[in-house]
Amino acid sequence: MKKNKLKKLFKEGNAAVNGWLEIPSSFSAEAMSHQGYDSLTIDMQHGAINNSNILEMFQAISTTEVVPMARLNWNEPDQIMKVLDFGAYGVICPMVSNKSQAEKFVQACMYPPKGYRSFGPTRASMYGGSDYVDHANDEILKIAMIETKEALQELDKIMSTTGLDGIYIGPADLSLAIGEKPGFDKPEGHPTYEQILNILNHAKKNNLIAGIHNASPEYARKMIDIGFQIVTVGSDKTFMSEGAKSNVSKIKNKL
């Protein structure tokens, strides 16, 4: 089976720069895959993407060596198995609040006897190789998002889930969970920042990879420096919107 390059990166103590895809387009996915990212995540939760887009977007990403991943819209086995069958090498599950939910997520990603994933690697065996089913349980990254009030009380229980590879922080939902305004790149001393450190420390204690969404490359670099191994900045939609707005503004201000 084709090796998961992110796992090798993490084992060597390095961090992955992850891109985020919200636009339902194979062309934009292909364009993003040529920008030097280590991985690209298709956002099915908040992106304008449905099941019919996923396959062609994974195919576009596969024209490069970028690792294809997906962020689910919920902890649903049917969607988990679908994105895996289409070739996802990493799955990010939102709103994981307790160990039972974490186990349900992880086991849906794994073939028996470790899980209950159904056999039928529609495209995954073409992308991963003819021996995909023999190694998929070990190569697929299974990442739970920690972003609810309940999860903050269950960190060690969630992170001790057998087969879980890592956790991912959505700072906006995490902020809402503790009664703060949603946002990113919270400064040191801010309640959300303190929770980010708390989650990171628990991840380190449980030997899990930690990832986080960021608004700026400077903040992402800071997160790498304190121990995060997956950092995401913005998205394809954000880059397109901000780039267009900046150019239009510069032109109009000269008129």
Description:
- It is a single chain.
- The protein is of the alpha/beta class and 255 residues long.
- Helix content is 45%, strand content 15%.
- The chain contains 13 helices and eight strands.
- It has an eight-stranded parallel β-barrel, surrounded by seven helices.
- Helix 2 packs parallel to helix 3 (51-61).
- The protein is globular.
Number of strands: 8
| Spatial strand sequence of the major β-sheet | 1-2-3-4-5-6-7-8
How large a portion of the residues is in β-strands, by DSSP E? 15-25%
Content-based structural category = alpha/beta
- The radius of gyration over CA amounts to 18 Å
Number of helices: 13
Q: What is the overall shape?
A: globular
**Strand and helix order:** HEHEHEHEHHHEHHEHHEHEH
